[in-house]
Design a protein that fits this description.
Blueprint (H helix, E strand, L loop, with lengths): L1 E4 H7 L3 H8 L2 E5 L2 E6 L11 H7 L7 H11 L1
Parallel strand pairs: 1-2
Antiparallel strand pairs: 2-3
């Protein structure tokens, strides 16, 4: 863990990603008081495939066309 002032963070902004990766956690301070904390994300999962997303969706009990028709009739 590393503690940095806002001014130090501004100066280190171009290399902030590598700094966080190497330090693990960076505490940002203003006038000596902590105001924010940068932490690395845990694991890069990436984007799921469309097949995986479709597999997570539960199938409807009734067709969507039927549900839309009912909503339109209510108006």
């Amino acid at each position: 863990m590393r503690t940095m002032s806002i001014r130090e963070v501004r100066d280190a902004l171009p290399k902030l990603d590598s700094l966080i990766a190497s330090e693990g956690e960076v505490i940002i301070t203003r006038r000596g008081r902590p105001i924010a904390k940068f932490v690395p994300l845990q694991g890069d999962k990436g984007m799921p495939s469309y097949a995986d997303l479709r597999a997570m969706v539960k199938p409807l009990k009734r067709p969507s066309a039927e549900l839309i028709r009912e909503d339109r009739e209510r108006l």
